[in-house]
Amino acid sequence: MAEPRYVTNPDVVYTKLGDEEAVLLHLTTQHYYSINETGVAVWELLEEPRSLDELATALTKVYDVEWDEARAFAESFVTDLGRDNLIRKS
Amino acid sequence: MQTVLVLDVQGIRVRLRAEDARVGRVLREVVAYFGLPVSEAPLGPAQASLDLAVWERLPTLPPTARRVAQYGRHVEIWRTGDAFVLWSARALVEVDPAAGRAAGGVIMQDDPALRSEVLADVVLGLFLLLRPHGFFPLHAAALVQRSTPNAWAHGEAEGVLFVAESDSGKSTTAYQLVRQGWSYLSDDSILLQQRNATIEAVAFRRHFGLDPDARDRFPEVATHWSAQLTDVDKRCVPMDALYPEQAADRCVPRLLVFPELVAETESRLVPLRKSEAMLRLVAQSALVTLDAAWTPAHLDALKTLVNQAASYRLFAAADLLRDPSRIVSLLEARWPASSPSYPPSLAETPSPHG
């Protein structure tokens, strides 16, 4: 079975503040969140549908991190984002 | 007899009209609450209008209407097509922002709550009608420090915004600053408008709302104040009577201060990350999530504001009440030395007050 791919929820408005942080505003739940530099990198990657493996590979090209560690981070962050419906499966 | 009032919000004329004299009287009280320029004769075409009639009963909402938000204690906001319906127990107003028009009716009762409901409808109606003109509301106090060298740089006043929930000390702090010579836009509610890549704060509601015990610290207020329409626990202080020379129409915010009351001995300002400041601004921004079509522009305005100003949490302790000069020294110590958002050609222009 193909690995699921994830993409940002169009009901979430993304506002980037400089290069290192951003704010997410969910229009339906009216909840809002801040994300740090790494979160910004993942969020922008998720503007196109991506699997966790693809996210991990992309992160290793930007950060000095082993693939397994990047994959674990991506899985954890995507789980957090999915819990609040900020992203969805494509 | 028909009542027509024209409210001037920074050059945008909003015509308020009531066919019934009783509604007209309520409308006059409500409009006086803003402390903004009002005329009884149209000085030209109005860019927006709000009409109120007397109704026997409120109409029912169409089945397709959906509730999108609650505003304060009284008003529910419903969406029907491109219009919004402001619905409360005794009033209903339909607002069509694209057409610049709002119209509705009230059930006349000799009940103070009616005024609060009409006020909430007028405030919300104005927010919605002014948004297409580039104005976004923010729950904040706004003040201008005249004596700071940078305050009137480039002919524009630079200011501080106190942004927080009610009962966080905004109004008391703002009033203390006015007593020490600062100019004021509001203690509670302003509009944000983008001009030349900079966000300016614009006066929207001038009169202050203070706790009844404020008379112990500020005896002058008691001879002027009256019941507050929005909050029965507060008194309305007409600032045009007390400090007419210190009213300011607009300013460029350079400090964003987010106050919170603490049981400590000494107040302090602590720098805040941009994202944290942004989240706090969003929390105090009515309508930001009301209409997805306007959310990006509203957030862009808040983003520009965060980028042009330095942001701090204010841990407000009892020393601010004991020593009014304390807040001045705290703010002046953090006042930005330069105006980063000005283009170089303007920044090189000497300040007339610098």
User: What's the SSE pattern of chain A?
Assistant: EEEEHEHHE
- Helix tally of chain B equals 10
How big is the Rg of chain A? 13 Å
| Fraction of residues in H or I helices of chain B | 25-40%
Number of strands of chain B: 20
Number of strands of chain A: 6
Question: Could you name the ranges of chain A where pLDDT drops below 50 across 5 or more consecutive residues?
Answer: none
The helix/strand class of chain A is alpha+beta
Strand content of chain A: 25-35%
Question: Which band does the percent of strand residues of chain B land in?
Answer: 25-35%
If you compute it from the alpha carbons, what radius of gyration of chain B comes out, rounded to the nearest whole angstrom?
A: 20 Å
Low-confidence stretches of chain B: 339-354
Main β-sheet, spatial strand arrangement of chain B: 3-1-2-4-9-8-7-6-5
Quaternary state reads: heterodimer
The neighbouring-strand order within the major sheet of chain A is 5-1-6
The shape of chain A, in one word, is globular
Specify which chain pair forms the largest interface: A-B, 15 and 19 residues
Rough outline of chain B: globular
Largest sheet, strands/sense/barrel of chain A: 3 strands, antiparallel
**Mean of pLDDT of chain B:** 87
Question: Could you characterize what this model shows?
Answer:
The complex is a heterodimer of chains A (about 90) and B (about 350). Chain A has helices spanning about 35-45, 50-60, 65-85, and strands spanning about 5-10, 10-15, 20-25, 30-35, 50, 85-90. Chain A is α+β, with helices and mostly antiparallel strands and about 90 residues long. In chain A, a hairpin with a 5-residue loop joins β3 and β4. The longest helix of chain A is centred in the C-terminal third of the chain and has 17 residues, at about 65-85. By secondary structure, chain B is α+β, with helices and mostly antiparallel strands. Helices cover about 25% and strands about 35% of the residues of chain B. Chain B has ten helices and 20 strands. Chain B has helices at about 20-35, 110-130, 170-180, 215, 240, 275-285, 295-310, 320, 325-335, 345, and strands at about 5-10, 10-20, 40, 50-55, 65-70, 75-80, 85, 90-95, 100-105, 135-145, 160-165, 185, 190-195, 200-205, 210, 225, 235, 250-260, 270, 310-315. Chain B has a nine-stranded mixed sheet, covered by helices on one side. In chain B, strands 10-11-18-14-13 form a five-stranded mixed barrel. A three-stranded antiparallel sheet of chain B has the order 15-17-16. In chain B, α1 (about 20-35) packs across α2 and α6 (about 275-285) crosses α7. The longest helix of chain B is centred in the middle third of the chain and has 19 residues, at about 110-130. The radius of gyration of chain B is 20 Å and the shape is globular. The N and C termini of chain B lie far apart (about 55 Å). Residues about 340-354 of chain B have low confidence and may be disordered. At the A-B interface, β2, β3 and β4 of A face α6 and α7 of B.
